[in-house]
Amino acid sequence: MTGRFFYVIYKEFIHILRDPRTLAVMFLMPIMQLVLLGYAMTTDVDHIPTIVLDQDLTSQSRALIKAYQASNYFDINRYAPAEEELRRLIDKGEYRAGLIIPSGYGSNLEAQQNAQVSFVIDGSDPTVARTAFAAAQTVAQSHSLELAGQRIGLSLETLPGVQVHTRIWYNPEMKSVNFMIPGLLALILQFMTTLFTSLAIVREREQGTIEQLMVTPITPPELILGKIVPYVAIAFFDLAEVLIVGVFWFGVPIHGSVTLLLAISTLFLLTTLGLGILISTIARTQQEAMYLSFFTLLPSIFLSGFLFPVEAMPTALQAVSYLIPLRYMSTVASGIILKGVGLRVLAREVMAIAAFGIVIVALAARRFRKRLE
Amino acid sequence: MIRRTLAITRKEIIHIIRDPRSLSIMFLMPVIQLILLGYTATTDVEHLSTAVLDQDRSTQSRELVDAYRASSYFDILYYVSSEEELGQLIDQGDAKAGIIIPTGYGRDLTGDNEASIAFVIDGSLPSVASTAFSAAHTVAQAQSTALIERLYNVDVEAQAGVDVRPRVWYNPDMKSANFMIPGLIAMILQVQSTLLTTLSIAREKEEGTIEQLIVTPLRSLELILGKVIPYVAVSLFNLMEVLIIGVLWFGVPIHGSVLLLLALGVLALLVSLGIGLLGSTVAQTQQEAIFLMFFLMLPFIFLSGFFFPLEATPKVLQWISYLIPLRYLLVITRGIILKGVGLTILWEQALALLGFAVAMLALATSRFRKQL
User: Fold this and answer.
1) Please, where are the H alpha helices in A74-208?
2) DSSP A103
3) Are residues B138 and B250 in the same domain?
4) Nearest CB to B124 within list A171, A290, A298
């Protein structure tokens, strides 16, 4: 058996090597994803471009603008002469927020009355808008307190109160890239293996070469294993690549055991390879295989918590997310890399990954054999 | 010329219809994307599962826990008796935050002192962590203010101060579906049609049928047009599909002109077709075409502002983003649908798309002709 099995691997490697462009994509894609996600994916919003319409022009209004500027949330570098201009620039998307201080603001404050200001926020991106909304109010609140303190002659620091010492565990700087890398590792494992396995098998079928292989003494398990092994090797290579770039370029610390991560990744490959084989039994053309791979990939990406927190989703979708193997693998990867936890804490996830693997491989093997007969 | 073009179109439509599975996926994919994005794309986290370690057990400490509970950001699900237990809950991911109130908290507060508590946050998800971080401080601040009011018998609210009235324009409820659906429309126009065009030409190449087509009296322009028209139709259909579901199911309001949206959508389709054709001159096989498109689409998606605001990315990536047509298209679809603006505001973006369309199509046809 071993000799024939290695021939299939050899043949598949020749296929891969003959197509250097695809090979380059296979190795470059993870790096590109990593760089893009590492740099572009950031949900911490600050320096929101803000335009100011100061109709008051007093020292009080200038103090308020200064307070907003000092908050780091808002970048103020332009003053609008009229409300229409402010509207036009926000319409154009050049500014995402606008502070309007009406005339009488300063005199109201001097008369010990409440002084109103308007704060316009472009709500089209809710993440930015929510931050801007909260920040607009917080800044005004602390500015009010400061004003009140000045009047009464009290300094805020000397008052009693609750002091919160926040400790951020696992990712103290709340860097997005630290969160991305474990998720990306899991995603690459799934993406590379499912798509490539299904494409490799379907290509043989589309070109009719699978029949030629079937009339040789190669048995179906040998054929499948032989075709899969090169892609498993590539997936592990990509995984190592992402880990190395993550650690050395982005400075992501690995707190747990790399061996354990590799072991559980191998277990997870059962699921993704099984899925690839399953797709290859359904799809007749490479195009169909690609579509079906996408079809499984999309819910995986969105429901695994890779991009958006599962906790924020509707309950029904949260329930569906338990059926997504990637969810467990993401938890495992971030648990090992960021939290440094071991098997004891991750037992549930590992069990789920094993169960998915067994079920999907069994299903795929059955369907594959039936198709050949 | 029209007759020959239409003949190719007919042939391509037959190809598409003969493969009902791909066809149904073509139409289902946008709906699935829509549902996934419409419901999952939100970082607005509330009700974080929280564990409390109350070592003080005083009225004051209970009051603080109640204040956290009432904030809707934290669901107090666990009371633990040791720091190890708290650590384990957070390690397992069962709790995302932990409040530790040390002994002496109540005594410190009644003694007019600062009282400290520790707030542990699981930082592995930065978006969740930053919300929890600011919520932890806001609640404590409110608690402090209430304390001062009681102590000094003053009403802080009644004090003169700055009263901010935030007005949220365009998307007053700050719903993420309103943000994602215009984006998805742009994405479909750009990504799907590019992919389909490249694949359909790469398939002819892989199967060798393109040579058969070349020996016919067809001119290359007719061949390209004929092959591309069905995919333009599919993309426009998908656009309508997403628009209708967006409006009727997700309640996205369309503030601007649908006609303008369609017109600029067609312009964007020309860009996609140009990129698709260009891709097909590079890729020899379907597999190559698929990977090439993946490779292109990644920066498209992440550097266009589709998911994350561009302002937050490093300057170099912001410059690169100017080379990505999807960036302009996103401003257009969001501008028309959410802001209700017209060409007077969007002319720069429309011009950029036009430039891309001309450049891409010219480049693609010249390369395509040379290859033939």
Assistant:
1) 83-91, 105-110, 126-152, 176-206
2) T
3) no
4) A171
What H or E segment, with its residue span, contains residue B201? helix B193-207
Instruction: Say if the Cβ atoms of A288 and B21 lie within 8 Å.
Output: yes
**A121 or B146: which leads in pLDDT:** A121
B96–A311 CB contact, under 8 Å: yes
Residue-level pLDDT at B261: 93
Residues B20 and B112 in one domain: no
Q: Can you tell me the mean pLDDT for B178-201?
A: 86
pLDDT of res. B104: 87
Shortest distance, CA B20 to any CA of chain A (angstroms): 10
3-state secondary structure of A306: coil
State which residues form the domain around B342: 2-41+173-371
Cβ count within 10 A of residue B353: 21
Please report where in the chains the tokens 């698929």 appear, as a residue: B290
Does any CB of chain A come closer than 8 Å to the CB of residue B199? Answer: yes
Cβ B136 vs Cβ A166: under 8 Å:
yes
Which has more pLDDT, A291 or B57? B57
Q: What CA–CA distance (Å, rounded) separates B178 from B166?
A: 19
* CB-closest option in B140, B164, B335 to A164: B140
Q: What fold does the segment set A48-156 form as a domain?
A: abc type-2 transporter like fold (3.40.1710)
pLDDT of A324 strictly over 80? yes
Choose among A121, A140, A311: nearest Cβ to B168: A121
Residue B335 in contact with partner chain A when CB distance is under 8 A: yes
Q: Which residues in chain A have their CB less than 8 angstroms from residue B136's CB?
A: 164, 166
Polymer length in residues for chain B: 372
- pTM as predicted: 0.81
Indicate if B133 and B273 belong to the same structural domain: no
Given this model, what pLDDT does residue A159 score? 62
Say whether A311 and B47 touch across the interface (CB within 8 A).
yes
| B146 vs A: CB within 8 A | no
CA distances for A159 relative to A140, B4, B136, angstroms: 20, 85, 19
Interface A–B counts its CB contacts (< 8 A) at: 345
Q: Which residues face A53 on adjacent strands?
A: A100
- Using one digit for the tens of pLDDT, what is the confidence trace for A119-133? 999 888 887 888 888
| A315's tokens | 């309950």
Domain boundary among B120, B152, B184: B152
The tens digit of pLDDT for each residue in B308-365 reads 777 777 888 889 889 999 999 999 999 999 888 889 889 999 999 999 999 998 998 8
Nearest to B83 by CA among B40, B46, B120: B120
